[in-house]
Design brief:
globular, 9 helices, mainly alpha
Length: 148
């Protein structure tokens, strides 16, 4: 049986996992992000924030293309990358290599940041923020958690 989302998130936040062994744990995710954050100025590393992609997709795609030495994206490519278009093609695009998704379109739930806050409530968000502050540098967390 599936656990309530708030309970699953609580366990994920509180897990004291070795980040090298459990990369999907909160310590693992923040260790990976912290490493990328330390190296963010290197020419072979690009960080993209979901909020930036969702509010200025064409601009972010252009920025990424420039960093990768590619031609700027065509309007058709930008349109194909929009949330609504990707959700319409969920059967082809949703990652499900193990076949566990009951509905691939559910992978593309809302297309906006912050929906998890509704699931875990204010106490869950506070626990997460406190735990994240133990695991990652403040400047990374400021970038990661900036208001939408």
């Amino acid at each position: 049986p599936r656990q309530p989302v708030a309970e699953s998130v609580r366990r994920w936040v509180e897990a004291d996992a070795d980040p090298r062994e459990e990369m999907d744990s909160l310590p693992g995710v923040l260790a990976h992000l912290s490493d990328a954050w330390r190296r963010r100025h290197e020419p072979n590393l690009v960080l993209a924030h979901y909020h930036d992609l969702s509010t200025d997709l064409a601009g972010e795609m252009g920025r990424l293309a420039g960093r990768l030495g590619l031609d700027p994206p065509t309007p058709e490519l930008v349109d194909a990358a929009r949330f609504e278009r990707m959700r319409a093609r969920a059967a082809q695009l949703a990652p499900d290599t193990r076949g566990v998704l009951k509905d691939r379109s559910a992978f593309f739930r809302r297309g906006r940041s912050g929906a998890g806050r509704e699931e875990v409530g204010a106490d869950g968000v506070a626990r997460y923020l406190a735990r994240a502050a133990e695991l990652a540098p403040p400047d990374l967390l400021a970038w990661l958690h900036r208001p939408a």
